[in-house]
Design a protein that fits this description.
The structure is a homodimer of 147-residue chains. Chain A has 147 residues and is of the alpha+beta class. Chain A has helices at residues 2-14, 21-32, 39-49, 55-68, 108-120, 137-146; strands at 37-38, 71-75, 81-85, 92-96, 102-105, 124-135. The first copy, chain A, binds a DNA duplex (30 and 30 nucleotides) through residues 16-23, 39-40, 52-57, 59-60, 63, 79-81.
Chain lengths: 147, 147
DNA sequence: CTCCATAGTGAATTTGAATTTCATTATCAT
DNA sequence: ATGATAATGAAATTCAAATTCACTATGGAG
């Protein structure tokens, strides 16, 4: 974690940036917070520690982390931007439309089929997004009972 | 096309709705316009024919079509909502990050793997979204030349 | 160490797509 | 025809996100 912060600071310096306490706090909170956190979540968490950190700094820092490749921007269509660490291995999402629960999965066979498809279309893929929407186990059961 | 409009009007009537000229124009323009049109695109196209149609009507009509299942809402992460007809068979998207070109593909093997994954997680899928981002053939070639 | 150019900051403002409001108009069952 | 109600368009509102701006902090040059 400390070495991670150091590495990030080096990269920031490399592109002509300076350090700051606020930004360090945002970065630390981000990596400590669970995945799929909204900007609002992150801002809350940061400000819980240090009330003086402004929303703008949270937004700017997350954008910076995304640019450096440490964070990934997510959008599950609810109008809120979410971020997750890009350090963990790649995965896709199952989003419950009822309770909002987001779970993750990996399926290498899907990945390789995507590569194939892209190649067939002369397309050079840099990333992809696969989100499956529906009802989680809990909500599916609850839904059945209602009928 | 005419029979489609009639069918839609029947469904609207069934949920207690009335007809209107503006709405009919929006619907017609939507089905005549290429896929992945933004709301702005649609509004422009409609207002080109009939300047008196307001943006709100375009927005409301597209939401209605989505609710009835005739239109699908898309979001490629550029902050603009797009719509495509839901009459064509299901497909996923290849989005060029350089020129914005969107092309479509179908891959039944991916679909079935998704079903499998969902089942394994006790998840009841209602829909999914798979977008592959990268460079289209044109832009990939152009990018190489630059280096 | 001391400058000082410049990056970063937070509060406040602005942006911009999308939605809602509201007074008016159009539709349609009776 | 009439009256209940859906639909309309212009304008106002919403809301997350981005930007502005006056001020502060950082860190390389000397």
């Amino acid at each position: 974690m400390d070495s991670l912060l150091k590495r990030i600071n080096l990269e920031i310096a490399a592109i002509g940036g300076k350090r700051s306490r606020s930004r360090a706090q945002v970065i630390e909170v981000f990596f400590r917070t669970g995945p799929h956190a909204t900007l609002e979540d992150l801002a809350q968490a940061v400000r819980k520690r240090n009330r003086t950190v402004g929303y703008a700094t949270v937004y700017r820092t997350m954008k910076l982390l995304a640019k450096l490749g440490y964070a990934k921007e997510l959008d599950f269509g609810d109008g809120l931007k979410r971020y997750e660490s890009n350090l963990e291995s790649h995965h896709d999402h199952l989003v419950c439309q009822e309770c909002g629960l987001v779970s993750e999965f990996q399926e290498p066979r899907i990945e390789s089929l995507q590569e194939q498809v892209a190649k067939q279309h002369g397309f050079l893929p840099t990333m992809h997004r696969l989100d499956i929407y529906g009802l989680c186990r809990q909500c599916a059961v609850a839904g059945k009972k209602e009928n």
